[in-house]
Predict the structure.
Amino acid sequence: MTSHVLSPRGMAAAARFAVIALFLPLASPVSAADLKWEAVSAEVSMGKAIRLEVRLVGAAAPIPNSEIKVTSTRIDMGPDNMAAMDAPLRPLPSPAPGVFAFETDFVMAGRWALSLTATVPGQKEPVSGVVIFTVKDAPAKKSSEMDKPVEERKLLYYRNPMGLADVSPEPKKDWMGMDYIPVYEGENSGPKGSIQVSLDKVQRAGVTTEPVKRHMVRKTVRATGTVAPDERTLSVVGFKFDGFVDELYVKEMGVEVKAGEPLAKVWMSSQEVFIRQADFLRALGEERPSGKPMPEEINLRTFGFPDAAIANLKKTREPSRTLVWSSPMAGTVIEKPALQGMKFNAGDMLFKLADLSTVWVMAEVAERDLSAIRVGQRARVNLKAFPGEPFEGKVALILPHINMASRTAMLRIELPNPDTRIKLGLYADVSIDAEASDEPVFAIPASAIIDNGDRRVVFVSKGEGRFEPREVKLGANGGGMVEVREGLADGDEIVVTGNFLIDAESNLKAALSGFTATSAAEPAPTSDMAAKP
């Protein structure tokens, strides 16, 4: 075991240090108020994927990033705690100890506020703060006259960065702290009424163009209707004489019958029919020219006697008061007023038959869509009874009249129904693929049109950020396309998206034109133009 003995010189140094330590204050821990966030670089450029770097300052010694946990972040265009516009914020790996990096998209120049909250070792409460970044508008690419350096071009005025009709002869800031944008001579060049927009602003706004071409304008016409029987197959069973229903062979509605199948046996109370039978039987014993029908037989058929009844008279040679009546067609009994033992008069309906292998959908279409409907067009029919199972039919007839109350036209759509699943009276939703134009026409996307109620305007791209407004006359529309009858030519490059920016620039230019005209007539005094005595 060894011992350390201080030398006389070491003992003297230790004594001096002890005396000094008695007069030094004790070190206190750093409070949350002493810590704050600050920007590594407070000025950044406008655009996408812009890098931001901040650091936490005020600690006695650097705190490792691994011990600081950022719990909340937000970036918004909100100077003075006014959150007007926010942007997505994405964390990035730390570039250096004590520095935190993020990535965001800046869509507008001005002051943006980054709010952070983090838990820090040794602090009872989270450390929060707001870091202000000044976003600068990136210089736009210029061409021709605009390729000249700024100092070589004549400065006209400064305009509001938000597009408001507010200009200034001198640099200034708006209420959000954004710098007014300088406007130089040459930026308003071009044909009368044209608009010049910087290329970087065009790109940021997502302005896209496409050439004008000929298209078939198609639209989907929608209608509602109900299922009805095919009127061409309807048949009514009735008699041309009075009588009684002696026996019913088909006793219920909805039964399918075959042609010639017995329906009922009737008792004929008409004396005239009995006399016609006697005349026919008497004529059978007389010699008549062969090959010619007997007038007496014709009389019986006039009363509706079927072939089977006439054949039975020839066989029995006796008149009958009863008659078995058969179905004149194959079909479904859709009405049956006949009852066992009921009395009927000549002309009364006892049965109503219909062939339901084909049904009609009687659909009502709006008056405005009538011009697009043609006979033979394909129609999709959706029935409430069979959801998700559309039926295919075709337009067979457009009825010649309009419903005056609903201002709709009636269509007849033929629908195959071989298994008779489709029942009469079902509600139907109908969609018809219609041609809004008979041949290809100049057509543009509906998004390209700016409609202010009085005029319809389309912007034609002239290249290099110049756009010319064109007033157009429109025609048929459908499927997101609109026919253009006047105002555009084949191959014109038009703006289809982002035209709101160009429209705003157009309105601004009109306002600035009025401003400059007024300024030329009566120069507005400014603080720097005050008259000196």
Q: What stands out?
A: DSSP finds six helices and 36 strands in the chain. The mean pLDDT is 79. The radius of gyration is 47 Å.
